[in-house]
Amino acid sequence: MRSSGRRDLTYSSDRGNSTDRLSDYGDIEARFSVRSSEAPDGDLCYLVPGRPHTVSQCQFNAHAHTFIIIHGWTVTGGFDSWVPKLVEALLEREPQANVLVLDWLARAHQHYPTSAANARLAGRDLAKFIHWMEVALHYPLEKLHLLGYSLGAHVAGIAGDLSKSKVYRITGLDPAGPGFEHADAQGSLSPDDAGFVDVLHTNTRGSPGRSIGIQRPVGHLDIYPNGGSSQPGCDLHRTLLRIATSGIQNLDQLVKCSHERAVHLFIDSLLNAEQQSLAFRCSSKETFKRGLCLSCHGNRCAKLGYDTRPVRPRRSLTMYLHTREVMPFRVFHFQVKVHFFSQEDVTFRDQPLKISLFGTLGEKEDISLVLEWVEDYVFKFWERSGPSPFYIRRLRVKAGETQARVVFVAKDGEFGFLSRGGDYVTFVKSKEDPASQTQQRLHRLKMIGSLFKQSTE
Question: Is 56 among the residues known to form the active site?
């Protein structure tokens, strides 16, 4: 451990005689349970490195994809309820796959700093298991996908770092923050640990090193749902209501609700493939909230979860999205651009706008089938009346999920009239091509001047 106002884990290298070290299976304490759809919560058979008979005994398919689920710190000493749910979801999506659960419960059921330090030992055990798969079973590591939750994400990263060959993919499900926020690449999950490392950050609230989930990017692709700090439905009031209605067994959700949401978002991506959530690259969550980051050009958007496309950028791609509070979590993202005109030179900041879109799926042939809008577009300031009205010529709406763009124009006249606290203004979808509209406006400006000036005189 080191101390400089913060406490993070550092480790000496285990790479001295890495092949010899990885081939010594005698000191492995972790257990590798093969799960099935019939018994997703049952540890009925274990693969044991150095004992090849367990391969046939556990009906392990050396030609199929393999998922290894890695739990995190445990207070109870047992597996969390999400483990069999993730097992079932993986096998429903990939029925022929091998799904293993890494059991390091004895080391994870300690005071947190001790369990965090034990992640190194569990990672070493996993690296030895991977080495045995590759050498003894001739298993191709491009078919191996590690999924680690909380401390388990760092276990996966440490194993990937120690392994002689790269595994195909590591998915970090809200990797633990305390002890790892400032740790080096060998002591935590990092982009170098697998061919592709994708990470979901769902509980980063608090100062660096004190948040339950790690705040910094640690993968090739780091996604921060709802900004990453906390998740919808996980506020204190709703969590207490859940405890009151469902029982004291949900008391741990006071702490784990946002942290565990990363797991359920991944499960959602497995079970609801037709309703994939889409994340968008952005410089910060504040910029994303301003609606400035809804482009899919050049790897600027990605599917969240299982179906995300592997990328290996020079720097981590940081992406954001909004979600619902229950499964399916997908919501649609819209960017609305409004050009205001006024007779006065005025400035307003952070004004509340209420925008309503009305649409029916399949109503127009020339609009995306994901979302369509009918004629009315409602728009209103919800503040007390003020002296400064605005005029609006058009609104431009972009749908993030389809990348479709639609222009709305005032229903009555060239401009819509908007006053603070006044009546709402209705806009309708423009039937003209945007390019032809621009040409007409420039021609009209050249010939007769601005209609805006005429309408305000």
Answer: no
